Amino acid sequence: MLHALGDHPRIATDDGTVLDLPQPVLDALAELLEAAADGERALVLRSPEQLTTGQAAAVLGVSRPTVVRLIEAGKLPARMVGTHRRLTLGDVLAYREATAAKRQAALDEMTRDAEELGLYD
Fold it and tell me: What is the 3-state secondary structure (H, E, C) of 47-99?
């Protein structure tokens, strides 16, 4: 779809102003369209450096209380801003990747065990 728009895609606002789409916007739009084509949910964050517990929950695909429990258990670093917890996007993404890697390792081990037991024969 983006290729059909040409080298310099533009959009028009309600008042008729024509805006050129900068490359970072095109890259984000391409990611969004790719996720939709793959049947995945896409998440767009406006302030990616500091996340609320609700935003972190959306990134992780869990509930906000789960994020709070992860923070309280020391599994997810956060800092207090007044009475509110704030997390960095980097920490949240690192936690997500680490848990995905652990999950994949467990699945790989289960597959190996099943193969050794001859369950795939």
Answer: CCCEECHHHHHHHHCCCHHHHHHHHHCCCCCCEEECCEEEEEHHHHHHHHHHH
